[in-house]
Structure formats: C-alpha cells, structure tokens
Specification:
The complex is a heterodimer of chains A (about 750) and B (about 80).
Chain A: E1 2-4, H1 22-26, E2 42-48, E3 54-60, H2 62-65, E4 70-75, H3 89-98, E5 103-104, E6 110-116, H4 119-128, E7 130-135, H5 142-146, E8 172-180, H6 183-188, E9 192-200, E10 212-217, E11 223-227, H7 232-243, E12 250-254, H8 270-280, E13 284-287, H9 290-296, E14 303-311, E15 317-329, H10 336-342, E16 352-360, H11 374-391, H12 396-403, H13 422-431, E17 443-452, E18 458-465, E19 471-475, H14 483-495, E20 502-506, H15 523-550, E21 557-560, E22 563-566, E23 574-575, H16 576-581, E24 590-597, E25 604-614, E26 621-631, H17 638-657, E27 688-694, H18 715-727, H19 738-749
Parallel strand pairs in A: 1-27, 2-13, 11-12, 15-16, 19-20, 26-27
Antiparallel strand pairs in A: 2-6, 3-5, 3-7, 4-6, 8-16, 9-14, 10-11, 10-13, 14-15, 17-25, 18-19, 18-24, 21-22, 22-23, 25-26
Chain B: E1 2-5, E2 19-22, H1 27-37, H2 41-48, E3 49-53, E4 56-58, E5 71-76
Parallel strand pairs in B: 1-5
Antiparallel strand pairs in B: 1-2, 3-4, 3-5
Helix pairs in contact in B: 1-2
The chains are: A alpha+beta (about 750), B alpha+beta (about 80).
Chain lengths: ~750, ~80
C-alpha cells in the first residue's frame, strides 16, 4: 500500500527489481568481516575485564608471550595516552573504551590482546595474561549512579549544562533542558491530567554478524584494514586517533555487513588488530564471540522517565512535563539530547518542560541504535497520551490529529517544521481495514506515533560509463539497508538506461571521496543526491559529445530515455551505447564525481497500530496484527523501505516484550547469548503490514526522506497501549514480559 | 537582523535571554556577534551545536548564509543509528 501526493511517472524509481547483492548473499559468496583469510594471517583474542569497576594494578604478559605460537601481546601501554596529549575528551573516551589504561569501567572492558598462529593458541595465551585488579564499588543504573555519595566512574566529571557549574564531580555528565510557555497555566487549563513513571532496560542492536576486523600492517607505517562497519571512513578516523597516526596511513575496505542498526558506527577491534599486526609483522584477524558482542559492544540506554501531561476536553494537549535520565554506560554520551528533542516533537504543545540527564554507569558504553534515544521517550509520552485519550473518551488517532505537528509548527526543539507527513501517517492508519478489524477475547488494540530528524552529512559518488553503455556507480556508503539498489534505481532514472545496466559498488577509503557513516537514515538522501549530481554531470557531458558529433550547439541536444535527441529531430538519436563506444573520439572516458554536504533533510514520522492477545493465565503477550504507516518522502525502493519499516517494528516488539540486559549483583551480564537474550524470530510474529506514505521532501531531487530509524520509535508504546486495551493494565516497565504482565494483572485483581 | 533563539539549556549563557536579534551574514559572523554579547557562548555554540536556519538543520554551518530576518536555532548535536 502506498499513499502518495502525486505520480511523477518515474520509470525506475519506485519499482521492485532484484537486489544487486542478492545473488552473492544467497549463494554464500558475499564476504563478511570474518570471511577474509590472508597468507600468514594470525588469529587474535582479546582479554576482557571480569569486573564491572576496578583499577588495573598490573598486567603480566610474560607467560603469554612465551607460549607456543604467540607472536604478539599488547596492552593499553602500547597505545598513546591521549589524555597526556591534550586530545579532545570524546577522543580520549574512544581510546579508553577500545582498551583500558588505568581503570576498567564495565565487565568485558578490554585490557589486553594477543595474536598467535592458531585460534586455540590465541585463546590459551589470552587466558595466560595475568591482570591484577583492585576491585571498586560499581553502579549499574541511573538511580544508583545519581544517588548521593555514589561511587564515581570519572573523578573529574563535572555536570555540563548546569548554572552555576557544580563544585563536586558526579556521574551526571550533562543536563539538557527545553521549555516553552507556562507549565502551571497549561495544567490549570487541563480537564484531565495523567502522571506516570517509566523504566526501560538496556537492549542490544542484535545484529546477526559479530564484529570482525582483519589488519595487515606494513613496515612503512601504513596498514590495510578490512572490517564490517557502518562507515569505513569513520573507522579509519577513529582508528587513527587511537593509534596516534594520520588517517592517510590507513586504508579501510568495507566488508559486507550483517546488520548494524547504529551499533557498528563504533570502533572496537580495528586499532587492536593494527597494533597486533605491527608487533607481529603479519596480518591479524580478530572476531568477537556473541558473548563478547553482548558484554562489550554498545547496547542502548536503560532509562527512567517521568511524564505528566494534561488535555482539555476537546483533546488539545495543554501542558507536558518530561523528566528523563539515560544511562550512558562507561563514558558520557547517552542519547538523552535527542530524546529531549524528540519526546514531544510530534505535537504542537503550548506549555512544556523537558529535562534530561546523561548518566554514566558501569555498563558497556552505549552506542547508537535506530533513532537513538527516541523510542524510550516515545514509550513514556505515547503511553500517557493513550491514557489521556481514554480519560476524555476520544479516539486515539483523533487526539493525535488534534495536536499533530504540521508545516509551520514550532517544533518542541526549536525551529519550525518544513513540509512533513505526520498527519498523513495518522490518516493512513485510520483508513486501513486493520483499524476496524474485529478483536477476539483478551485481545486489544494500541496506537502510537514517533518522530525522528533523519540526517544529511557528507557523501561522495563517482559514476563511470563503460564502453558498452552500462554504468558503474561508486560510493563509500556501506550497504546495510539496500542503498546499492537505491543508488542504482536513481542512476537508472537519471541516465535513462535499465536498472540492470547499473553496477553499484561500495569502494574503499582510497578509491572514492569521503563519505560519512551509513547512519541517521541519511544514505538514500545524501549519497543518493551525490549519485544524482554525478549522473547529471554525465548527462551534460553526453549532450556535449552528441553536439560535437552532430556539429551543433549543445542547446540543440536533449537527453531523453537514455539517448541524445536533436530538438528538431534533425539527427538520428545517439544512445548511451553509441556515445560510449566512441568516447575516445569525443573527449575520452565518460566519468563524473560529485561530493556534497547534504542539504534539505526531511524529517520522518511513523504511526503504528498493534493488536495483541494477552493470556491472562500466563501473562504471555502475542502480537496478532500489526500495521505501520511511515512517511518515506519518496520510496525509491519500496521493497527496502518496507524492509526498514518492518525491521524497526520487529526490533521494537522485541524491546517491548522480551529483550533486556540482566546483570548480577557484581555487575556481570547474566544473559550474553541469543538463547537467554530473547529476540523475536519470524515464528513469533504476524506479517507486519506496511502503509508507505509519500509526502515528498521538497529539498531532494526525488523527494527522499530517511526511512531507517523512525520505525522503531512507536512500537513499545503501541504494544503497551494494546495490552492496556486487552486486559486493562498500564505497563510502565520494559520489557513487558509475562511475569510483569501477570504481576500487573494480579495487582488489578487485588 | 537574524532572529536567534536559544534553547533553555543555552540560556544559562545568555543571562536568561530566550532570543536576540543579530546582524550577521553567515553563521560564523553570527556566532562571533553572539560571543561579544555573551562572552563564552561562542565556543559552546561552535563545538556542541547544530544550527537550524529557517527550519533546515545544518551540522557544519560555519559558512552558511544567514538572510535578513532568518530564524536561527542552536540545537544539541545528536547521533543517528
């Protein structure tokens, strides 16, 4: 189902051809990070802290170094101390998270790494590295970390964003604040007020492919890295920072990637692999176990959020007060800033205060996860809004329509919205048959909405026309969500040649211009715009070559359906094939580059409808029907847009019902496997129905917005609201596991 | 004159002012002018903010033009996934 403002008559954009990477992936030929094998390659193993918080007293590597097959052992002392070099605090944190120097701040924090001829030798040597720790008291939650006299992770951490600045250090890295209007007046005008407190647990991005990196260092100081990441240019920059070298000394090749969702915008293994390779003089491969992925790579924040909202009888929100504390893990940088800006951004609210805190604790440093920060805030706000709608007996879509942000609305985070499609997503849900489908016993229906900014940032593209009239589209954006197909579709549309004649390629850091990460739902927009620009340069070049061939002025030549045509039909058309075959006579190879810092990012909105069935005896919640409506701007590749929409929903359902990090009292993760960390699988779920809404982004040549992230924002509230509708209990804690639902049911009965 | 708006979190550096008018043709000039009005705010704005000009958000906005009567908001930097 697609709902669009116009039908522009594209030939390729909006079609559903076979994906360009499909054959290699289904035949096992695609090479992921762990697949590379180089001659003489060694196998590495990382030594990790067993403690949540401890001072490193000493590290004795002598026994490991003397073991058979061991070629290198490294510790934090093998890396430059950035704190002594006046480096930026965020760079120091990146380096210290890659390998600890003085303190370990979470269970799983790297303290050393080894490289040996075989995996078994590397594993044995890692066990022989003797680390002496002074165990320190730890804090695992925002409540523990914010308590008076809490143990400090960073003795010099002074809260930013507070005036006057605190004199004493704490675990609160920063405070954010947004406010407008008069809160007291707003609540005074309300006919119904609801106030609730919510908690969410850290959850992992859950990508199927563990982190992997291979490094091959040369004696001249240069090194080549192969890794699976969401941005090999960013991996190069971070790795260079940690190693204390120029980024130009490193070449990074992007392997195929088995999922990232934000979690592979971070370095973990790359600098370790390079340093081990330098020490050993041979290539080194490092691959994480699933256990390591859970214990040492970024989950997203656990949170505590309080929401108070008021509405008038006609459904207008008169006031909103939001307080939120987000776990950052070991180093500052939780997504509370984005949470503060997104929490109530769907709505036009005259009076509000949104206050948030970035709080460090002894867990892995959080990493980005689809629309970072927004889903937890939406769980809280959208749950309260659902309750308010029930209190004043108004339809859950109608209350959102009554307050929906539209073009010109002053967003809660500041600027006015340009053209956006939130209302259209609400209407798409209301008009869908699912909205009025009959519900069975113990079944309920929930609605929730979400907002995400999307991003632009920097991209480059090169387009080569081959001698047979086909084209190669080269970018530096790792393909994690179908970008190769989107690039090929837009190039086919621009050049006027078949999609199958376009070969999209993701090139290494030395072969194409700079590209920022594949994140922020930005690649189809920004890298796509670079591809469009490069194609338009090609078309201009082709028009000039046709003009030269016909001995006419270039303005006598049009490019139509993949061929040069004389405006008066005075010459027979010249196809791209014709022009490419004779390119040597008209100026040489046909090629163009385009680079840009993207403009005109289009915000994304999603509204979702969930039907659940709750077993009152077991507390098990089963999703029986699910519909997601999202403004894509323009769905260049509807298959992939639906895949992103469905993927976000499925991850959100897992977050809602099952997923959580569980730690013991010592701060050790107790469920670091897919057996005990339960993510939803296909058999757990119904078909996720999609309604693609297309309100084109006027600033993009094809109207593209981003689609990768906003789909994960509404599901937790949609599920929670459906549970409430089914069994009349308001769930305020994630995950809404069977035991918690049963407890809530029992409290209701009691 | 550009209309510059500050989030509540930035108002600690503006003596509580929620918005001011500034005569500048680029974001760089605007930040310099603001730093003269509110000493110290320039470094904070340059390092830790995105800029929205008439509703469009920029991450590297130093040389972006600011038209007369433009509405400018400084935003917290956020990361996508």
């Amino acid at each position: 189902m697609a709902i669009t403002e116009e039908n522009p008559g594209y030939k390729w954009v909006g079609t559903r051809p076979i994906r360009p990477d499909g054959l290699e992936k289904v035949t096992g030929k695609a090479r992921f990070g762990a697949d590379l094998v180089l001659p003489g390659m060694l196998y590495g193993k990382v030594v990790r802290s067993p403690h949540a918080h401890a001072r490193i007293v000493s590290i004795d590597t002598s026994a490991a170094e003397s073991m058979e097959g061991v070629k290198a052992v490294i510790t934090g002392a093998d890396f430059p101390d950035l704190s002594a070099n006046g480096a930026h605090p965020s760079d120091i944190d990146v380096a210290n998270n890659a390998i600890a120097r003085d303190k370990v701040l979470y269970e799983g924090h790297v303290v050393a790494a080894v490289a040996a001829i075989t995996r078994e030798q590397a594993e044995a040597a890692a066990k022989a590295v003797a680390v002496t720790y002074e165990v320190l008291p730890h804090v695992l939650t925002v409540d523990e970390a914010m308590a008076d006299n809490a143990p400090l992770l960073h003795e010099a951490m002074i809260t930013k964003g507070v005036d006057p600045a605190p004199e004493e250090p704490s675990n609160i890295a920063s405070k954010i604040l947004h406010e407008r209007g008069d809160l007291d007046q707003g609540f005074g005008e309300a006919d119904a007020v609801v106030e609730r407190e919510f908690t969410t647990k850290p959850v992992h991005q859950g990508y199927i492919e563990p982190h992997a990196a291979v490094a091959d260092a040369n004696s001249d100081g240069r090194a080549h890295i192969w890794c699976s990441s969401q941005g090999h240019f960013q991996m190069r920059a971070y790795t260079a920072t940690v190693l204390g070298v120029s980024p130009g000394t490193l070449k990074v090749t992007a392997a195929e990637i088995g999922g990232g969702f934000g979690g592979k915008t971070v370095i973990y293994l790359e600098p370790l692999a390079v340093r081990l390779s330098q020490r050993a003089g041979r290539p080194v491969k490092l691959v994480m176990d699933r256990d390591e992925v859970f214990r040492a790579t970024g989950p997203t924040s656990g949170t505590r959020i309080k929401v108070k909202m008021g509405v008038s009888k006609d459904g207008k929100i008169t006031a909103a007060e939001v307080w939120m504390a987000y776990e950052a893990g070991a180093y500052a940088g939780s997504p509370v800033g984005a949470a503060g800006m997104t929490a109530i951004a769907c709505y036009d609210i005259p009076n509000f205060v949104v206050e948030g805190y970035d709080v460090v604790c002894n867990k892995p440093r959080v990493a980005a996860y689809r629309a970072p920060g927004a889903p937890m805030a939406a769980f809280a706000v959208e749950s309260v809004l659902d309750e308010l709608a029930r209190n004043i007996e108004i339809d859950p879509i109608d209350i959102r329509l009554a307050n929906a942000a539209v073009e010109g609305t002053q967003a809660s985070y500041g600027p006015k919205f340009p053209r956006i499609g939130f209302v259209e997503t609400l209407e798409a849900i209301k008009e869908h048959p699912n909205y009025t489908a009959e519900l069975g016993p113990n079944q309920g229906r929930g609605v929730a909405a979400g907002f995400w900014f999307n991003a632009g940032m920097m991209s480059s593209a090169t387009v080569h026309v081959n001698e047979n009239g086909t084209a190669t589209v080269v970018t530096g954006s790792p393909d994690i969500g179908g970008s190769r197909q989107s690039m090929a579709l837009m190039a086919a549309e621009e050049l006027g040649i078949p999609y199958e004649s376009i070969k999209p390629v993701v090139a290494d850091t030395e072969t194409v211009g700079f590209n920022d990460v594949t994140g922020g739902s930005r690649v189809t927009l920004a890298t796509g715009a670079a591809v469009v620009d490069a194609c338009r340069l090609i078309v201009e070049d082709l028009r000039g070559r046709a003009a030269k061939t016909w001995d006419v002025e270039v303005d006598q030549v049009e490019w139509v359906d993949g061929q040069a045509q004389h405006v008066d039909g005075a010459q027979p058309p010249l196809s791209l094939n014709d022009l490419a075959a004779k390119s040597g006579r008209t100026g040489g190879p046909i090629s163009a580059n385009a680079s840009l810092n993207s403009r005109g990012v289009g915000a994304g909105f999603s509204t979702q409808l969930c039907d659940v069935e709750v077993d009152p005896e077991t507390g098990v919640t089963r999703v029986v029907r699910y519909l997601t409506a999202q403004d894509a701007g323009r769905a260049i590749s509807p298959d992939y847009v639906e895949g992103q929409m469905q993927g976000g929903v499925v991850q959100g359902i897992g977050w809602a019902l099952n997923e959580e990090y569980i730690h013991d009292t010592e701060g050790v993760m107790e469920n670091p496997s897919f057996l005990d960390y339960r993510m939803p699988v296909a058999s757990d779920l119904p078909m996720i129905d999609c309604a693609i809404v297309e309100v084109p982004n006027p600033a993009h040549p094809y109207g593209v917005r981003g689609v990768g992230e906003v789909g994960i924002v509404p599901p937790m509230a949609a599920v929670g609201n459906a549970i409430h509708d089914a069994v009349d209990v308001r769930m305020t804690e994630l995950p809404m596991s069977p035991i918690k639902v049963l407890e809530a049911l029992n409290e209701n009965d009691g | 004159m550009a209309q510059v708006h500050f989030s509540a979190g930035l108002r600690e550096l503006t003596g509580g002012a929620a918005h001011v008018e500034v005569d500048a043709s680029t974001v760089r000039g605007l930040i310099a002018a603001l730093d003269e009005m509110f000493p110290g705010i320039g470094a904070r704005l340059s390092e830790a903010s995105s800029v929205a000009i008439d509703g469009e958000i920029f991450t590297d906005a130093e040389y972006e033009s600011v038209s007369d009567n433009a509405e400018v908001h400084f935003l917290d930097i956020f990361q996508g996934g």
